[in-house]
């Protein structure tokens, strides 16, 4: 019992590591997809309030607001008014003037000339806005660049930035491309900071936007005395009316317009270039820390470390942001939550799991516990079966079954050598024997059998027990299979009158394989055991390889190559042929598409089971495998055996007609082995006849076979059909078929079935020989 509990704890620890790995992967997904953006922004807003501080006062916003529109007129204003604003800012001693909105040329040439003159005469350097907009309908890019008449006397800046789904702006670019022009951001120019193209920097929203000096454009145009406010400072002129400009969410504050975003960006850069630390480094640090913490045995230290990690995630970002380092913590916080909840679930489910793996009557680990038991290395698994356990149990006094099982387990303990004893239902027990003890196993079981010759006392009664043992020594098989095998051996010992018996897999191996083959076939496609070989077909008319026949193969991980006759026949009998055929079609079309896409005309032939002709859905399956492929459907040939085609029902023949109407070729395979009539050949929508190898292989030496092959070729040609001869293995046969005007051949002389890479090499070598 102690050994079982130890193994159980190890299993729980492994599950804990699994939770850590899955937690890390999920957290990385959260980070990559930015799934936690709203929560991250909410935490960021809280930190901004705690670190809130005033702006420098060195950047002033002149806003074209509702008051200005009321006193001066509705926007847009004439450029004369903008020129007047520049003049007044110069009088007030502005250091630099930035426009946060585009200034395109107007229809009035006098307006343009007046504005250009104001730019030229300005003592303060003027920066005009150049930006690009992406239209919602169609995603077209519209570049808005000031005309050359303005750019002669002004520099360009941009206020482009990317906003999130909730109109949040987390960062600003240092520069952007407007058309072919590289343009620096307003904030970067004001702060005098630059960086590599397309680099961005985070905005420090702890700067109180309400402390940025603000002047209404109406006051500026009224020529009020603003020199004390403006002298020596940078001025950004922007739209501050929600009817004129898009609103954006300033974290922890309220909605505002782009001119304030630009000002906050400039204030951020004035204190130095901030660093965007991202989410991945802190996630990996927390993951590594929890990995080591999970190895700590002291519960109080382990739990304290988790609280420390959690506190760090909430405190560290605020400290880092005060130093200009911005950290995204939500993926790490998500991981820590998954790790904490998962660890809690594992610890608190331990007792439940232990209860689910213990026999309530005897207190011994049950078979569920055995299946979860870690048994490394080679060992023998022993099953003890008490044949008359149920009969005895039904006669026991009330509440005495536990004592009865205790007597049994005490006796079995003499032969288990201290290994854990597991109890199943109805008198079944298991234990393992290490490899080094297998030589004395027979003596141990004989001794146990002798012990059980004595009746088992329970209360006033004594019970004779009929016990036998089964042994499985194959450590390579799964534990569940070994349990069944050991029980089967115990039952075999009982039936043969022996005390114990080793499991002999040879008796059940073939039967077990046949029973399991169909189940394994379902998975073989998905795990790569099934593959397709391709046998090339030679066109005698052009002496070139123009196609191949697809042949399915199964390489089993333990049994090696499985005969197609075995598993294909089983698939047909047990309604598994549909998935198998669709797999072969998909692999074959991939190969055909490769060759045709590279300029090589290449057809592919796939065998079609008669079972598929008897069931609806063939056309739909063909549509599925061709979906998403540009390959012409005429490149596919479906081969139906002559016997299957002749015996097909009217519905099956209609299916063939429908497939032919889709452009798919139909071939009668193994021709000559059935009993086709001329009338049938006329009705069948086949465009190809494939002569069976049994006639082709012997036509050089058999006059009757030669006559049959020759007449078949002439008959098929008269019906407008192509003839393929299979089983060509020597040059004499190939020459005879050429003389008979056979269209195509395949066989070992041309090429054996091969995988895709080998076929590619074969095609290259064949083409090279013909060229030579």
- Strand elements, count: 32
Query: Are there runs of 5+ residues with pLDDT below 50, and where?
Result: 1-14
Our count of helices gives 30
Strand order of the largest sheet: 24-25-27-28-29-30-31-32
Please provide a written account of the structure.
This protein is α/β, with parallel strands linked by helices and 772 residues long. It is 47% helix and 20% strand. It is built from 30 helices and 32 strands. An 8-stranded mixed beta barrel has the order 24-25-27-28-29-30-31-32, surrounded by 4 helices. Strands 6-3-2-12-1-11 form a 6-stranded parallel sheet. A hairpin with a 2-residue loop joins strand 8 and strand 9. Helix 1 packs antiparallel against helix 13 and helix 4 (79-91) runs parallel beside helix 5. The protein is flat.
Quick structural summary:
The protein is of the alpha/beta class and 772 residues long.
Explain the layout of strands and helices.
Elements: H1 2-33, H2 37-50, E1 59-64, H3 66-72, H4 79-91, E2 96-102, H5 109-121, E3 125-129, E4 131-134, E5 141-144, H6 148-151, E6 155-157, E7 171-173, E8 175-178, E9 181-184, H7 186-191, E10 200-202, E11 214-216, H8 217-221, H9 227-230, E12 234-239, E13 247-249, E14 255-257, H10 258-270, E15 275-278, H11 280-293, H12 299-322, E16 325-327, H13 330-356, H14 367-372, E17 379-386, H15 389-395, H16 401-416, E18 422-423, E19 428-434, H17 441-451, E20 456-458, E21 461-463, E22 467-472, H18 479-495, E23 500-502, H19 505-524, E24 530-539, E25 544-556, E26 560-562, H20 564-573, H21 577-597, E27 603-607, H22 610-613, H23 618-626, E28 636-641, H24 642-646, H25 650-661, E29 665-671, H26 678-683, E30 688-691, H27 693-696, H28 703-718, E31 722-726, H29 731-739, E32 744-746, H30 756-771
Parallel strand pairs: 1-11, 1-12, 2-3, 2-12, 3-6, 15-16, 22-23, 25-27, 27-28, 28-29, 29-30, 30-31, 31-32
Antiparallel strand pairs: 4-5, 7-10, 8-9, 13-14, 17-19, 17-22, 18-19, 20-21, 24-25, 24-32, 25-26
Helix pairs in contact: 1-11, 1-13, 4-5, 11-12, 11-13, 12-13, 16-17, 21-23
């Amino acid at each position: 019992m102690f050994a079982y509990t130890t193994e159980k704890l190890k299993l729980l620890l492994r599950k804990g590591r699994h939770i850590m790995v899955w937690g890390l992967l999920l957290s990385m997904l959260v980070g990559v997809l930015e799934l936690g953006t709203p929560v991250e922004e909410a935490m960021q807003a809280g930190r901004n309030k705690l670190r809130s501080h005033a702006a420098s006062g060195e950047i002033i916003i002149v806003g074209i607001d509702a008051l200005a529109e009321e006193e001066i007129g509705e926007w847009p204003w004439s450029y004369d008014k903008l020129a007047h604003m520049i003049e007044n800012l110069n009088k007030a001693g502005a250091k630099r003037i930035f426009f946060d909105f585009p200034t395109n040329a107007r229809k009035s040439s006098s307006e343009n000339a007046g504005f250009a003159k104001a730019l030229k005469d300005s003592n303060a350097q003027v920066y005009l806005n150049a930006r690009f907009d992406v239209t919602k309908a169609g995603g077209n890019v519209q570049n808005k660049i000031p005309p050359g008449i303005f750019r002669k006397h002004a520099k360009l800046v941009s206020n482009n930035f990317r906003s999130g789904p909730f109109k949040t702006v987390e960062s600003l670019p240092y520069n952007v491309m407007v058309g072919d022009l590289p343009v620096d951001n307003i904030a970067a120019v004001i702060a005098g900071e630059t960086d590599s193209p397309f680099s961005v920097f985070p905005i420090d929203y702890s700067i109180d936007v309400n402390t940025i000096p603000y002047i209404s454009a109406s006051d500026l145009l009224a020529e009020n005395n603003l020199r004390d406010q403006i002298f020596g400072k940078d001025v950004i002129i922007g739209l501050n009316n929600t009817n004129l400009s898009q609103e954006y969410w300033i974290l922890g504050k309220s909605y505002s317009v782009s001119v304030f975003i630009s000002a906050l960006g400039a204030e951020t850069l004035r204190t130095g270039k901030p660093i965007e630390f991202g989410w991945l480094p802190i996630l990996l640090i927390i993951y590594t820390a929890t990995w080591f913490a999970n190895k700590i045995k002291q519960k109080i230290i382990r739990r304290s470390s988790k609280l420390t990690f959690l506190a760090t995630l909430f405190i560290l970002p605020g400290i880092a942001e005060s130093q200009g380092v911005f950290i995204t913590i939500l993926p790490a916080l998500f991981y820590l939550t998954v790790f904490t909840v998962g660890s809690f679930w594992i610890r608190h489910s331990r007792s439940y799991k232990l209860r689910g793996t213990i026999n309530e009557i005897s207190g011994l680990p049950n078979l569920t516990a055995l299946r979860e038991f870690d048994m490394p290395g080679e060992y023998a698994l022993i099953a003890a079966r008490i044949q008359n356990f149920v009969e005895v149990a039904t006669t026991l006094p009330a509440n005495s079954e536990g004592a009865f099982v205790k007597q049994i387990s005490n006796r079995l303990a003499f032969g288990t050598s201290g290994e854990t004893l597991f109890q199943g239902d109805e008198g079944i027990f298991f234990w393992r024997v290490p490899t080094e003890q297998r030589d004395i196993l027979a003596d141990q079981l004989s001794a146990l059998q002798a012990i059980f010759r004595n009746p088992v006392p329970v209360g006033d009664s004594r019970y004779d027990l009929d016990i036998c043992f089964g042994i499985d020594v194959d450590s390579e098989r799964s534990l569940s299979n070994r349990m069944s095998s050991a029980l089967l051996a115990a039952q075999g010992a009982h039936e043969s009158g022996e005390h114990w018996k080793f499991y002999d897999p040879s008796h059940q191996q073939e039967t077990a394989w046949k029973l399991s083959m169909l189940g394994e076939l379902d998975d073989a496609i998905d795990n790569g055991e099934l593959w397709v070989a391709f046998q090339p077909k030679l066109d005698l008319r052009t002496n070139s390889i123009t196609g191949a026949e697809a042949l399915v193969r199964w390489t089993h991980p333990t049994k090696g190559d499985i005969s197609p006759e075995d598993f294909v026949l089983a698939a047909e009998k047990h309604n598994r042929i549909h998935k198998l055929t669709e797999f072969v079609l998909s692999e074959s079309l991939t190969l055909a598409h490769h060759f045709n896409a590279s300029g090589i005309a290449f057809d592919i032939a796939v065998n079609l089971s008669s079972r598929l002709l008897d069931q609806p859905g063939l056309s739909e399956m063909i549509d599925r495998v061709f979906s998403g492929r540009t390959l012409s459907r005429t490149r596919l040939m479906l081969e139906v055996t002559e016997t299957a085609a002749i015996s097909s029902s009217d519905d099956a023949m209609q299916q063939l007609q429908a497939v032919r109407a889709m452009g798919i070729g139909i071939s009668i395979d193994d021709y000559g082995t059935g009993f086709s009539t001329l009338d049938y050949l006329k009705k069948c929508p086949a465009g190809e006849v494939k002569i069976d190898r049994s006639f082709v292989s012997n036509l050089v030496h058999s006059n009757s076979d030669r006559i049959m092959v020759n007449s078949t070729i002439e008959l098929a040609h008269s019906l407008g059909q192509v003839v393929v001869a299979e089983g060509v293995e020597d040059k004499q046969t190939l020459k005879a078929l050429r003389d008979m005007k056979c269209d195509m051949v395949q066989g070992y002389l041309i090429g054996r079935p091969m995988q895709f890479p080998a076929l590619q090499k074969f095609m290259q070598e064949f083409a090279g020989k013909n060229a030579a």
